Amino acid sequence: MILTDTHTHLYLEQFDTDRDAMIQRALTAGVKYMLLPNIDSGTIPRMMDLCAGYPEHLFPMIGLHPTDVKENFESELDKISEILAKNKFYAIGETGIDLYWDKTFVREQKTALIFQIQLAKQYELPVVLHVRNSFNEVIEVLHDVADQKLTGVFHCFTGSKEQADQIISYGFKLGIGGVLTYKNSGLDKVVAEIAMEHLLLETDSPFLAPVPYRGKRNESSYIALIAEKLASIKGITPEEVAAETTKNAIKLFKFPQ
Ligand SMILES: [Zn+2]
Predict the structure, then answer these.
(1) Smallest Cα–Cα separation from 158: which of 122, 119, 184?
(2) CATH number, domain at 65?
């Protein structure tokens, strides 16, 4: 079984005490490919060093996380553009809009999102979108700037069937994570109606751990629990879920196998 975790922050401090053992657990669990979304210019060196140590398994993205869009966002985006010009990345992300934590910089978040979508177009990379309490705002931006070639994923999708259909109409995928295993999330009923070709698996480690680890630190090996849940919803085997979602991830991110 070959699983892919399309969204995992393995370089964060929550893994400082056992990072290599934790990555080994993921590899042992069949999680052969892991994609690392960036947060800000400060996390890039750690992320790139970690990926360099596992060149067949870990693949970096580059971007500025919406909750880190502050007064200095323009200089942050300049740094990101410079590093992107000189190094190989597999996606732009994570970017997006977050209106859950703080609405102070909503205009700047939007500007930063548009800038990063332009980078995605320029480098022909997929864009990884963080959408929290901001579905309509992000769709509005996509409506303005999307073209036939632009693609990507709505990471940590927890929306309705109508929202899923809108995302799919823009040629984007849905990133399905631990929320799928939460009782009363309602996500199971939505996902049941969406074709497998539109779905990716992700943990968002160290956040959003699936049941039975809910509330604890998340790690990429737990992607197997999300695959099992999706398999039971779809009435197929976890092996089929792994194969389909890994195929979708390879097609989107084009990482080497
Ligand atoms: Zn994330």
Answers:
(1) 184
(2) 3.20.20.140
